[in-house]
Amino acid sequence: xxxxxxxxxxxxLLLISACNLPKETEYQxxxxxxxxxxxxxxxxxxxKKIEIWTPEDIVTNTLKYFSYQHDDIEFEVTVVDRLNxxxxxxxxxxxxxxxxxxxxxxxxxxxxxxxxxxxxxxQQPYYDHQFFRSRPNALLDNYLNDQDEMxxxxxxxxxxxxxxxxxxxxxxxxxxxxxxxxxxxxxxDNWLEIVTRLGDDGLYxxxxxxxxxEWGLNSSYPFDQNYQYxxxxxxxANLLEGLTIIDAMELDIYQSVWQESGYNNLKADRLVMFQAxxxxxxxxxxxxxxxxxxxxxxxxxxxxxxxxxxTSLIAMIPENATNKNVxxxxxxxxxxxxxxxxxxxxxxxxxxxxDLNQFYLSLLEEPSIGKPSMLxxxxxxxxxxxVYRVNQGYQLNETFFQxxxxxxxxxxxxxxxxxxxx
Length: 422
Prior knowledge:
Elements lengths: L1 H17 L21 E2 L6 E7 L5 H7 L6 E7 L5 H10 L6 E5 L23 H5 L3 H4 L12 E4 L3 E6 H6 L6 H8 L2 H13 L8 H10 L17 H13 L11 H8 L5 E5 L2 H8 L7 E4 L14 E4 L7 H21 L11 H9 L11 H16 L6 H24 L1
Parallel strand pairs: 2-3, 2-4
Antiparallel strand pairs: 1-3, 4-9, 5-9, 6-7, 6-8
């Protein structure tokens, strides 16, 4: 019965992914560009073997000390191509050739949320009260299935933040205290006020319409826990409204911090506010150490709290895994190592603020927009078409986005029924 259900779900998702792909291939979102890493293989003379699959090798550094505690085990890390990861994992699950530990990005985790092929981590023998309570419930709840069983554990998390030049915002009379500015940016009209007033003087409070849309898609999920489509509702609807207003005012500036245009504006003190994952604080400091002490961070605008799905990673233990107690110990070690930076950092040389760990934890304590589901790929394909069209200069208006809403709702109608009946 489990194999039949898994086959039905996988077939449904493969059909979804095959539909509505853009014919053009010139454009590719920078969000999916990731550095390639090589597989690491442990000493082949060891007796037992634990196999780990991951889209990014965040495992080897932890294994440098963890493996000493398990001299009788060989740990083999394989980096799986991100673009084929879901298909690769599905095939392994169907053929019972899965590894002992599967790591997947938060962007793809929804594809596994309805499968009954993984260990339930919030039950014995896995549940560890002290370990679980050290993480915000809102973060852990993302990886509960319909029966409130935890099928995956977050081990690498990057919350989105708003980076801003406090010194420049102060010159214009805007709030500069992180908490006050965060509350101010929750209102669409206030965000537009900052954008337009700074824009009058050739300063920029965002990167581009394309990057703003990609941020929204990368920090949220299109369906709630009941599989209801929510991109037509606030807060995502506020983001779309803001994009249409900026486009109508012809204020799009077509820049990205990862391109020369955005970098040059950062260096020239012209790009003074934008959204990015928390690791961007380190990147910005490496680029522009001379701006140390001029930046601060606060919540994303429109109450669009969320993690960077493309770089945040989730660990799953297949039910056929061997040495499960060791695998779970490794998951906890990975989670502690990678969570340490968020939970303990007090300050950063780029930022003019302290208690950063409390700020990061407060972000993670806020529920994300939507919840991972088996239907995510349906919306993802259609919305990536929109990202491409924005890149090509299509006019943004209510009709532009409503067409995508309608397409998503129509395509998920039958898929939602399949998921509920199986």
